[in-house]
Design goal:
Distance between the termini: 38 Å
Strand content: 35-45%
Structural class: mainly beta
Number of strands: 17
Oligomer: single chain
Shape: globular
Largest sheet: 5 strands, mixed
Order of helices and strands: EEEEEEEEEEEEEEEEE
Radius of gyration: 17 Å
């Protein structure tokens, strides 16, 4: 049973939820770069006008259905939107409204999953390409309200770096070709809640933080080849 991945882009302000992908338009000039979690310099602010209200119909220019769950935010570069999702080919437990404590699941899912990176057209929402970077059974558990694609990707304008905790890092070009990848050894997380820390770029280095219950660490990778 496939889930649906939702992304709301309201005048270039990115938000995520699990059902469809939508883009909301207004009269502001387009924001050409939102390259990482919380946008330019991680400030969480866009220097363009944004609507102060929206719904599934109001202030929405397009909507695109995508499979899977992913709490990661979309990123924007030029006329492209990039986002990640994890698709359970089995059956996923439905998150419960208001649930937080008691949602921990200590055992990983036994279903086959597909981890994917998508590229959408910013103006129309059309899917330009999708790339499955891994297929298999999850190595770690997650909270019922977490996902296996909670880390927001980052781009330097030439490549997209998609990090999936307890799985790996995947570097793709803007056409969806995988240029390199690096396996990330799985570690137990607190109460089995899973991972969510997004990667950041500085110069030619990609920084990853892995906060876990066994051996937390900070890692820097060469953006050209993935070498540590």
């Amino acid at each position: 049973m496939l889930q649906r991945r939702t992304v709301l882009l309201c005048s270039f302000w990115m938000m995520a939820a699990p059902l469809a992908a939508a883009f909301a338009a207004d009269d502001a000039e387009p924001l050409k770069h939102w390259p990482q979690f919380r946008g330019p310099q991680a400030r969480g602010a866009a220097d363009v006008g944004i609507p102060d209200r929206w719904s599934t119909k109001e202030n929405v220019a397009w909507k695109t259905d995508l499979p899977g769950y992913g709490w990661s935010s979309p990123i924007v570069w030029g006329d492209s939107v990039f986002l990640t999702t994890a698709v359970n080919l089995g059956k996923s437990e439905t998150p419960k409204k208001g649930l937080y404590l008691g949602g921990n699941r200590l055992e990983p899912s036994k279903s086959i999953h597909e981890w994917k990176v998508y590229c959408l057209d910013l103006a129309t929402g059309a899917i330009r390409w999708q790339r499955m970077v891994h297929r298999g059974v999850p190595a770690g558990s997650i909270h019922l309200k977490n996902s296996l694609a909670s880390e927001t990707p980052v781009t330097d304008g030439e490549r997209i770096y998609a990090y999936f905790g307890n799985l790996g890092v995947y570097c793709l070009d803007f056409h969806g070709k995988i240029l390199w990848s690096k396996r990330i050894d799985p570690h137990k997380t607190r109460d089995g809640w899973g991972t969510a820390a997004s990667p950041v770029l500085h110069g030619k280095r990609l920084y990853l933080i892995n906060d876990n219950e066994e051996q937390s660490y900070l890692m820097a990778l060469d953006t050209q080849n993935g070498d540590e």
